[in-house]
Amino acid sequence: MTPDRLPDNIPEFVRKEFLKNAAGKKFVAMKNALHPRFDKNGEQFDLQPLEFAQESEGTKKFFFLSGPILDTISNGDILLVDEMDARLHPLLTRELVRIFNSKKTNLKNAQLIFVTHDTNLLSAKIFRRDQIWFTERNRIGATDLYSLIEYKVRNDASFEADYIKGRYGAIPYLGNFSQLLGED
After folding, report:
1. pLDDT tier at 84 (50, 70, 90 boundaries)?
2. I want to staple 111 with a disulfide (CB 3.0 to 4.6 A). Which of 13, 78, 84, 169 is the partner?
3. Which residues form the domain of 13?
């Protein structure tokens, strides 16, 4: 990514660090993260290096996803992510989906295909019915793949509530946990 392709809303200290480390490199290894320091009046006065290894798992995952996401959006490619929601805050996952669904940020029609267990994303405000696919193991252990478009769904239906109720299948068979734990 070149300086002219960095988004305008990136904080200046991040932009400078990126450009310093990225000169002539395709990928950048992050050793330290920079965290702003504030005085008693809430004014930023410094940047404090923090070992990247000390960052949360969610921050690390977001950092490592950010390169492929920017590259995919820039080139109009397809990005496949398994368990995208793992370790990410649900609002961050939702924002990543919004970026791919937006005509303003996704000018080259890049596609994001991901696996998730985050039922909060099952919403007509986030996805069209043809964008939601389910997987379910059949009786012989093979996985069936099918779209929400195959179901008659009212326009005001809650995809999430209907999914949790089992209307679309693709929910795990839990069995009887009480029996498993030796309870009557």
Report:
1. very high
2. 78
3. 1-55
Whether 181 maps to a domain, the answer reads no
pLDDT digits (tens, 9 = 90+) for 6-42: 666 666 766 666 666 555 444 445 566 778 899 999 9
In a domain, 101, yes or no: no
Which pairs from 94-98 meet CB under 8 Å and 24+ separation?
Answer: 94/120, 94/121, 94/126, 96/65, 96/69, 97/121, 97/126, 97/127, 98/126
Q: Which 3 state secondary structure label does DSSP give 160?
A: helix
- Residues 6+ positions from 48 with CB-CB distance below 8 Å: 34, 35, 36, 37
Taking residue 27's Cβ as centre, other Cβ atoms within 10 Å add up to 6
13 occurs within a structural domain: yes
Q: Do the domain assignments include residue 26?
A: yes
Could you tell me the two tokens for 93?
């996952």
Q: Dump pLDDT digits (tens) for 118-175.
A: 999 999 999 999 999 999 998 898 999 999 999 999 888 999 999 999 999 998 877 7
> pTM for the complete prediction?
0.71
- From the list 122, 118, 74, 128, the residue with the least C-alpha distance to 99 is 74
DSSP string, 89-104: -HHHHHHHHHHHH-TT
